[in-house]
Protein: Diaminopimelate decarboxylase
Organism: Streptomyces violaceoruber
Amino acid sequence: MSRSAHPAGPRHADVLPEGHYSAPAADLNALDEKVWSRTVTRDADGALTVGGITVARLAEEFGTPAYFLDESDFRARCRAWADAFGPDADVFYAGKAFLSRAVVRWLTEEGLNLDVCSGGELTTALDAGMPAERIAFHGNNKTVAEIERAVAAGVGRIVLDSFQEIVRVAHIAQRHGVRQRVQIRVTVGVEAHTHEFIATAHEDQKFGIALADGQAAEAVRRALSLDGLDLIGVHSHIGSQIFDMAGFEVSARRVVQLLAEIRDEHGVELPEIDLGGGLGIAYTSDDDPREPHEIAKALSDIVTRECEAAKLRTPRISVEPGRAIVGPTAFTLYEVGTIKPLEGLRTYVSVDGGMSDNIRTALYDAEYSVALVSRTSDAEPMLVRVVGKHCESGDIVVKDAFLPADLAPGDLIAVPATGAYCRSMASNYNHALRPPVVAVRDGEARVIVRRETEEDLLRLDVG
Ligand SMILES: *Cc1c(COP(=O)(O)O)cnc(C)c1O
C-alpha cells in the first residue's frame, strides 16, 4: 500500500487506473447532501446558499478564493459526537484539522475536548479559553519549551511518544512540583486506510512506541516508576479517512492485551484508552461514512467484549475525530478564470486558488467533488480537471469531475468538504495570499480568519 497516499487518498489509491472517474451525476445541479454542509441549498434562482446567504453575496463581500464554514453544522456535529459517546467517554477534536479561536470557543461551548500538537495550537486553545484540563498535547517531537508550557498551563494529558519523552516530561513535571497526567502512544501494527487495513507485528513510521518486542510494556514500566508522571492510559491512532471498523477491532484487541499484561505485571488497571481519530467523511458521492452513534457503539462493543475476555474493568474510552467534525462543514469558493478544452482529453478549468489552499490532491491524490454554484445550467456535462494558478503542473484541485459545458469565466464554482486539512495546510507558494475562513450562520457571515494581505508578506520579509 502506498505510504505517500496514506493520510486520506482515494480508496485503493494505488490500484485505480490512471484517469479513472465516475460517470457524471444524473443532474449536475443537484447538491448531494453527503458532501455539502447541512444548511447548503439552492435558492429560487439556482444560486447556492449557505446559512441563508447566496454565494454571489459572499463572493462580493469576502472575495475568492475563500473557505465558508457552516457554523451550525459544525456545532451540530460536535453535539452528535458528544451525545453518541455519552458521559462515560471523551471526545477530543483534533485541532490540526482546522483550528482558530472561534472554533475553540464553539468546542468549549459544545462540551468537547481538544487535541493540540504544537505550541501554536496550544496558544490558540488557551487564548480562546479552552480549559487546560480539557486539552491533550500530542506530537512525536515536542520541544522542551512546549512541554514546559503544557505542564505549566496544566493540560489534562500529554501523550508520550518516545522513551526520551517519558524522562523529559517526568523531569519537567517534577520541577513544576506536579504529577502530569500522561498516556503512552503505542503503535499496534495496524495501518487503516479507508476500506482496507493491514495488521502486522511492526510498523515502519515515526509515531509512538511499538507493542512488538515488549517495547510498549517497557515504556509503561518506566512511566510507572517516575514520580512526575501519572499514567492514565494507552493511546493508539491507526490511520485516516477510515470507513471500515475492522482496523479498530484489531487495534483495540491489542491495546486491551497490553492493559491485561500491565495488570498482571504491576497490579494496576489503567483507567483509560484512547482509540485516536481517522474516521472518514464523504468527499464524493461514492463515499459512505458512518454516523457518530454507529461508530460509538461499534467501538464501545469492541472494547467491552475484549475487556470481558481479559477479565478487565472496561476503561474509559476517548476518541479524536478531526476531519469527521470539521471536514464536511466547509466549502471553498473559487472564481473561474480560464477554460482550456484539450481535444479528446478533458477541459482544464483554472481557478483563482489551487494547491496553496488545497494541497491534499497533490499530496495524497485526494478526490474531491465540484459544482457550478452561481447558477444552475441545463448544458451537457463536460469532463473537467479543476486546476489552480500556481507554477506547477501538479497544481490540481479536482482531478476528474463533470461541470456543465456552458461554464464560463466569471462563474463561481465550489469544492465541498474542504473544512479539514485545507486552510490548516495552506501555504504561500508563489506568494499566494492565504484565503480567509468565513463562518456563516443564520443569515450572518463573519470572518474568523482573515485573508492574508501583501502587507503581511512584506512584514515577514525584513529586507
Ligand atoms: C491526525 C490525528 C487525529 C485526527 O485525525 P482525523 O483523520 O482528522 O480524524 C487524531 N489523533 C491523532 C493522534 C492524530 O495524529
The two ends are 46 Å apart (CA to CA). The chain is about 30% helix and 25% strand.
